[in-house]
Design goal:
The structure is a homodimer. The first copy, chain A, is of the alpha+beta class. Helix content of chain A is about 50%, strand content about 10%. In chain A, the strands form three sheets. In chain A, strands 1, 2, 3, 5, 6 and 9 form a six-stranded mixed sheet that branches. In chain A, strands 4-8-7 form a three-stranded antiparallel sheet, with no helix packed on it. Chain A has a two-stranded antiparallel ribbon with strand order 10-11.
């Protein structure tokens, strides 16, 4: 994901080479719209003989890494050849080349270069940027350590300034301080930006970033004191050499500390940075990109499962009749259609987050951070909310394909293992939910103190809360289960109620005379639940808002059905909350169940069209089950026959073990 | 899993070689209890130099298959050398050798041999069994086809009898009829039992089993007309050559049809089998084994996650204090402790199912099938209920380990990919839930018609149902959230209510004048929900019942806490059901939340002891994160350094692609 930062960081910069076209111009000289540009770049890759690689599922991990480095090297050359230097176009092209997979140069392009741009002094830009742009320097970004992830203050790597030589001495003082996980660190990079605790003049000044040469520019061999390598096989990410780095008294010159903000002078004097919240902004950006990716991963999975459910015939509904498409089973619809609706919802939410981020980027660059806390809180929670549900949803799609979903030819195992780490990276999901909760509780307390809230949390204002029902015994509100606006309101009131309950739990804990911190920890379950409800409300609200932008009546109608399905299914899944808070009555809940069934039947004829609308080309989806033409079985057989175990009719293990065994028995 | 059928099918048989000891006798001559036998066999494997294999995560798929065949061949020799021939002891030893993974001979041992025993005529036993026992014949069981899984009547493979030559002509008439998935079919087996539609004298007589030679006994090359191979890489099961088989006019002698029951005479006359429900029994047995496996997989995952959560320090609860063990966070406890309770519950349920099955096996062999429908329905639903929750739970455990859970060294990816297919095989889970629902609805209707039900569904009797509350508005029942028996009752009433709701949904559909079948399909969501509630009730009930068997007061106390946690967490997760059916009031639900938090805190000091009690040896768990001694980080570093990408300091891709690229830019 971190590559996406490139879109953010390169924007508006004059890149060194070559001249940047304002937009892609095709061979017949015409300009293209954005969607067309994406399709044009995709077609460039699909028709390029250099990118018709062997099926990666048939390769060993070392071969997959090798193939990825090869493609990345070709990609860099072609980007320059075609004159593609707009960040979004680079991202697009890269994504097509690697079929959406992470690759060995991701951190070079997405973190190393952007960090130089953001944090290097002008002199450092001179020294490092052009060599890095030309891949003479291949860099990565080494932050996470073996024993330290989300909590940055816990990082242990040290950079101790030695004024005698004007050098920093870099060390990994413990086993837990070994840098662990950075992509491209294991074998690809010859430099890293290393986050380390700065010590100078006998004092620790906290985390700073240092450019550390790792490998010889001539031989690529690790430099003295540098212990570097690959961290070994993972669930997925086979193409990436996530690495470890142990530093043993590695000396780097003083000017290798990134000094745009903080500085260390020749004598070792530390100069504080002016307070800067820019990295805050980058985090928001990356998390909002992940929300879009959640929609994307789920959309791909739904495409595969829904298309295959229309190809697969199984069992019978009515005796004597031919086996029906499995898409005709209500249970299959109930598995897949809410996920289809979710995929649309997350794509819209991702677009919204991206727009908001870009809208307030101008404010941020002018030092106005007023909207950032809300967006930061929202992006943290939504990242967690969407990645959890999307991950689980991918597996539901995979299992909805029966046994064949378990084959690598379905592409679903690959989608899962490459998406599911988003639940952990860029902020572990539970920690993210608690960050959002912190904002919600703070807002709640402000409102309780009479402060008038604005923005997305304005529902926490006292005046609004007084309108809420208090328990099941009170009169149920007038929720209309057929009206999306009314359901959005119900979600809002649920969120308000759950935030209030979390706040009260903290208060009750405090009355037991525990500390603020223990009260917080002892209420953490309620806090996560409140965040979850808040995020759910935001998604339903944004989905409903999106409908207002759609002019075409046919599209509007089917998307309205999807939005209603999304809202009602969420209510059914969390019916306890809605009953508990008195927002729904028991008879209304029965209405919700009935309405859901009706909507499933209503969506059935449009299901395939709705996934076709995501417009994934077969070459990109790379799934035998999800083929556009539905010729699943012929291609599955053909795929299997190309499997490495079928290279010979008789596997060598027969001669080595089975024949000798037979002789002995 | 299918291997487990061996336990079932070999029981009580005189196996050909060698003499079967009544129990293991150790070298000092003492006999051992069952648990000791398991530990003894485990220690035999752990100390055996032949079974100290390289880390499988570092091998390619072909190497993993090769290594598995090697181990299986060694295993067969050692079983004979040690004189181990009791089925449970074989299973135990095999499971230790392969660390619980599926292996290439699973279907030979678990399906091919048992099917011969159950369905071969005495003459066929003479011809086939001893060669198969001595692995001259290596067999598999080919049922599933590319286009046909759960619905057996849909299978397309044909066996057409030709009286002129007294042969069956075997064919795969369509692409969808190609046999697909059988383990060991791709490269290992030289024979298969093939399920095919029997055609003789111009009539189709449905599915029969045929022994089909696939490969030459001398060269192992496929025979004429046999197209056989590996189906390609999967999510997991890397050691198994799941295969395809296309038959093109393959002729087999008449006596290759298994003729213990049905027969085809020389002139082609078909002789019907006497009705036999024995295969029914095998299915029940295998599904009940899977329930135990769900407990096992979850227990291993909890062991890893809970041990690592006591090693991992992260962030802070109180400022200034050292980073706490992540096990101290309420959210982490809330993720893991209910799963720990679930693991215990499923282990107990698995034991119970096994006992019941063995108890009624005697009845079954005497033709008394009266208890089988209930057990069949229960095993189908519980298989689905436990595998779904355990699969999701394994992933929760994995993600609770943060980034390191994503590394193969955690063992959690491996546990997941090897367990999750249980949701699909031996009966797809949704289909299983609907089978249980069919039994529940049938029972409900019987009760409504005045018939008095006995057994586990007796709660559906009219008299009991009249005692139930009807809606939230009515007086809540006297559920005591601190009393397990009272909670078991609440689960029972919930199940009764949801079965009733599903039955009413069918009735309402019928009133719309749709067919029985459409009414069923249009109520499928409610039916699955009812089955789920029924299974949940059974699990809670059996967990509670187990407590009665425990004499040790300390153990009883901590298991009671676990059982209460399990029951309360289920109520919280399904609070909508309990509120909707009027079984709980809103204030009681708040009590449940508070009590849950108390129980988490209460279990915290015992958490590590509770996973240690599962007694997994490090060699079997094979997880760096789950090590008994807690020395996680040193071993993670050591493991990573052995990764294949670290065999050379500089990967060849540098010389092939990166250096040339640098020269061009």
């Amino acid at each position: 994901m971190s590559f996406n930062a490139i879109q953010h960081s390169f924007r508006g910069l004059q890149l060194p080479a070559p001249a940047r076209p304002t937009s892609i111009t095709t061979q017949d000289g015409s300009d293209l719209e954005y969607v067309d540009i994406y399709k044009y770049l995709e077609s460039l890759v699909i028709s390029d003989p250099d990118f018709q690689s062997e099926d990666l599922n048939f390769l060993s991990r070392s071969e997959r890494y090798d193939a990825a480095v090869k493609k990345s090297a070709q990609m860099i050359l072609k980007l320059r050849e075609y004159g593609i230097s707009d960040p979004e176009e680079i991202y697009c092209y890269k994504s097509c080349v690697h079929r959406g997979r992470a690759e060995p140069l991701d951190l070079h392009l997405g973190m190393f270069l952007p960090t130089l741009l953001n944090q290097a002094s002008p002199e450092q830009m001179e020294t490092f940027f052009i060599p890095a742009w030309n891949l003479e320097i291949i860099g990565t970004y080494a932050q996470t350590e073996m024993g330290h992830g989300t909590h940055l203050r816990g990082l242990e790597t040290t950079a101790t300034y030695d004024p005698a030589t004007q050098e920093f001495v870099m060390n990994s003082p413990t086993i837990t301080s070994i840098k662990w996980w950075p992509g491209g660190l294991g074998k690809t990079s010859n430099h890293a930006i290393v986050l380390a605790q700065l010590h100078t003049q006998g004092k620790c000044h906290g985390l700073q970033a240092f450019i550390v040469p790792l490998r010889s520019m001539n031989t690529h061999m690790p430099l003295p004191g540098v212990v570097v390598g690959d961290i070994g096989p993972k669930f997925g990410f086979d193409e990436v050499d996530n690495g470890y780095l142990k530093l043993e008294n590695v000396r780097i010159p003083r000017d290798h500390m990134l000094m745009k903000y903080a500085k260390v002078e020749a004598d070792g004097t530390y100069v504080k940075p002016p307070s800067a919240k820019l990295t805050y902004g980058t985090m928001v950006f990356i998390r909002s990109m992940i929300v879009g990716e959640a929609g994307h991963a789920l959309a791909k999975s739904c495409t595969i499962a829904i298309r295959y459910s229309s190809v697969r015939h199984q069992s019978e509904i009515r005796p004597g009749e031919p086996e029906p498409q499995i898409m005709d089973y209500q249970t299959q619809q109930y598995k897949l259609f809410p996920l289809l609706a979710t995929a649309y919802a997350y794509k819209f939410v991702g677009q919204y987050m991206n727009q908001v981020y870009h809208r307030i980027t101008g404010d941020i660059s002018q030092g106005d951070f007023s909207e950032l806390p809300e967006l930061h809180a929202l992006s943290a929670g939504l990242k967690a909310f969407t990645t959890w549900t999307a991950s689980a949803g991918i597996e539901v799609c995979r299992m909805a394909c029966g046994g064949h979903g378990y084959s690598r030819c379905s592409a679903l195992p690959d989608i899962y293992v490459n998406f599911v780490p988003t639940c952990t990276y860029e902020g572990e999901n539970t920690v993210m939910m608690l960050q959002t909760a912190r904002f919600l509780i703070k807002s709640y307390r402000q409102a309780s103190a009479g402060h008038q809230l604005s923005g997305i949390v304005s529902y926490l204002n006292e005046s609004e809360r007084r309108l809420q029902p208090q328990s099941v015994s009170s009169r149920p509100t007038v929720v209309n289960v057929n009206d999306l606006a009314s359901l959005v309101d119900a979600y809002k009131l649920r969120a308000a109620k759950l935030v209030e309950m979390a706040a009260k739990s903290i208060q009750q804990e405090l009355q037991k005379r525990v500390s603020q911190e223990d009260a917080w920890n002892n209420s953490a379950i309620d806090l996560v639940r409140a965040s979850d409800a808040h995020c759910h409300y935001v998604v339903v609200k944004l989905f409903a808002a999106k409908l207002g932008e759609i002019g075409d009546t046919g599209v509007h109608s089917v998307l309205s059905t999807l939005a209603l399905l999304y809202a009602l299914q969420g209510i059914q899944q969390h019916s306890g909350d809605f009953l508990q808070t008195g927002l729904l009555s028991v008879p209304q809940l029965s209405q919700v169940s009935q309405r859901l069934k009706d909507l499933l039947a209503q969506l059935r004829p449009n299901a395939v069209a709705l996934v076709d609308a995501f417009d994934y080309r077969d070459e990109m989806l790379n799934s035998v089950l999800g083929r556009y033409d539905g010729n699943v079985y012929e291609h599955m057989f053909e795929w299997a026959r190309r499997s490495p175990l079928n290279k010979t009719e008789v596997h060598e293990s027969y001669h080595k073990y089975l024949k000798p065994l037979q002789a002995k028995l």
